[in-house]
């Protein structure tokens, strides 16, 4: 094995690890989120966004969830950049996904304000307070969500150009559904339907990131070859 071959295999393995980070980020976020839904008193997904779990005695769990999965998404985006470098969507697709990861980290650093009775036991006035960190949480999350939506359309164009219509349609559908759900939340709409729709959209967004990372890993050369 010469030095060039060895370096290529090392680079391929590193890229595979980075993409694996992107694959596991979504399942980790969702599993931790569902676990908290089951154990946190007063939390109701029909009324409350997952961000509210950053409050209360166990709030550090969700904060850590934001930070860890944000770092995993950034690593996954770096792996995508390695695979897509020099091709259509190779710059903006990974960059936008990386921005989503940064948004998650920002959402972890800036905790959402208590709202809609969660966490329970606070004075009534606490649920109506808009703090500086609450505003920054919304801004961080909003930028991240918009970046993810844009990434869906960027990679949809890539797959459309490659005539991979299934992946193109999947990317467009994810972007459209996520945008519709995000617009519903951002516009201040309330109700079980809006909250649940947004939660479903978040799951779809995470699934898309995992699917993209897994799909791109198949474009790497087989190290056994």
What this model shows, in words?
This protein is mostly helical and 225 residues long. Helices cover 71% and strands 0% of the residues. The chain has helices spanning 3-39, 59-84, 92-109, 132-161, 165-186, 192-217. α4 runs antiparallel to α5 (165-186). The model has no long low-confidence stretch (mean pLDDT 89).
List the helices and strands and how they pair.
Blueprint: H1 3-39, H2 59-84, H3 92-109, H4 132-161, H5 165-186, H6 192-217
Helix pairs in contact: 1-2, 1-6, 2-3, 2-6, 3-4, 4-5, 5-6
Structural class computed from helices and strand pairing: mainly alpha
Q: Portion of residues in helices? A: over 70%
Residue windows where pLDDT falls under 50 for at least 5 positions: none
The portion of residues forming beta strands comes to under 5%
Task: Briefly summarize what is shown.
With 225 residues, this protein is mostly helical.
């Amino acid at each position: 094995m010469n030095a060039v071959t060895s370096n290529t295999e090392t680079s391929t393995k590193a890229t595979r690890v980075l993409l694996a980070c992107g694959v596991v980020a979504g399942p980790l976020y969702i599993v931790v989120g569902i676990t908290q839904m089951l154990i946190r008193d007063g939390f109701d997904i029909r009324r409350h966004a997952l961000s509210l779990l950053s409050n209360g005695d166990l709030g550090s769990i969700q904060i850590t969830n934001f930070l860890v999965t944000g770092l995993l998404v950034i690593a996954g985006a770096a792996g995508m950049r390695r695979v897509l470098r020099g091709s259509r969507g190779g710059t903006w697709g990974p960059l936008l996904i990386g921005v989503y990861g940064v948004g998650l980290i920002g959402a972890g650093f800036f905790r959402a304000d208590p709202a809609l009775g969660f966490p329970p036991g606070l004075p009534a006035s606490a649920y109506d307070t808009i703090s500086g960190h609450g505003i920054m949480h919304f801004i961080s999350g909003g930028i991240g969500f918009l970046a993810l939506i844009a990434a869906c359309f960027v990679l949809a164009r890539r797959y459309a150009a490659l005539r991979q219509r299934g992946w193109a349609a999947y990317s467009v559908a994810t972007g459209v559904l996520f945008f519709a759900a995000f617009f519903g939340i951002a516009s201040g709409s309330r109700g079980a339907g809006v909250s649940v729709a947004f939660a479903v959209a978040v799951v779809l967004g995470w699934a898309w990131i995992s699917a993209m990372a897994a799909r791109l890993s198949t474009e790497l050369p087989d190290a056994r070859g």
